[in-house]
Amino acid sequence: MLIQGERYINPLTDFGFKKLFGTEPNKDLLIDFLNEILPNRKISDLNYSSNEHFGKTEVDRNAIFDIYCIGEKGERFIVEMQKAEQMYFKDRSVFYASFPIQEQSKKKNWDYKLEPVYSVGILDFVFEDHKKEEELIHIVELKNQKGKVFYDKLKFIYLELPKFDKDVSALETHFDKWMYVFTHLWKLDDRPKELRERVFKKLFEVAEMFVKENKSEG
């Protein structure tokens, strides 16, 4: 949904998020963002896959992701933007992650080797049990009773955008700049000088283009 007078598209709407990050011509934007939040992993290419996944039987629940893509080494990425608070969003994340795990199964001889699965949630709300914590990025993985990683191929990454409160002049890292884009893009009249990197130049151009196209079609 566009608001009259906006120059740039809002990435926190379903329309804006998918236009900016869910199309092949703009996958460099998604790659750059993912490389800022993925722990100990850098990706140079990915391919978009169908975002609709079906249960094993007709009565099983299906899943429709915002964005689903596969990295050059076979790793799977689910990227979800959630505007409104959802009581069982963590449960939904686990349920969604089960689909790219199951789709890797092979008939006949298979040694059960799986490629990593990453579930990324970009949230415009704060989890109830996180409201007293300052961290806005949460990386969750399976650990044993001693706190050691038991399985490192399944990770859940949550970004709680309302916790980001830096002004443009206080941006220090590339991660800061991405957070600023998510929380301020549609409010801006022009690209701030602090966002001079090529990836942000393209993002602003694309965000403006989609607004113009939407207005002309309307």
How does this model look, in words?
This protein is of the alpha/beta class and 218 residues long. It is 29% helix and 21% strand. The protein has 5 helices and 8 strands. It has helices at 14-21, 27-37, 89-102, 174-184, 198-217, and strands spanning 46-48, 52-53, 63-64, 67-71, 76-82, 117-123, 137-143, 149-160. Strands 1-4-5-6-8-7 form a 6-stranded mixed sheet, with helices on both faces. A two-stranded antiparallel sheet has the order 2-3. Strand 4 (67-71) and strand 5 (76-82) form a beta hairpin. The longest helix has 20 residues, at 198-217.
Short description:
This protein has 218 residues and is of the alpha/beta class.
* Low-confidence blocks of residues: none
Task: Please report which band the strand proportion falls in: under 5%, 5-15%, 15-25%, 25-35%, 35-45% or over 45%.
Answer: 15-25%
Q: What is the string of helix and strand elements?
A: HHEEEEEHEEEHH
The number of helices is 5
Q: Choose one word for the global shape.
A: globular
End-to-end C-alpha gap: 12 Å
Number of strands: 8
Trace the largest sheet across and list its strands: 1-4-5-6-8-7
Largest sheet: 6 strands, mixed
Report the helical percentage: 25-40%
Broad structural category: alpha/beta
Q: Mean pLDDT, nearest integer? A: 90
The Cα radius of gyration reads 18 Å
Compile the SSE list and pairings.
Blueprint lengths: L13 H8 L5 H11 L8 E3 L3 E2 L9 E2 L2 E5 L4 E7 L6 H14 L14 E7 L13 E7 L5 E12 L13 H11 L13 H20 L1
Parallel strand pairs: 5-6, 6-8
Antiparallel strand pairs: 1-4, 2-3, 4-5, 7-8
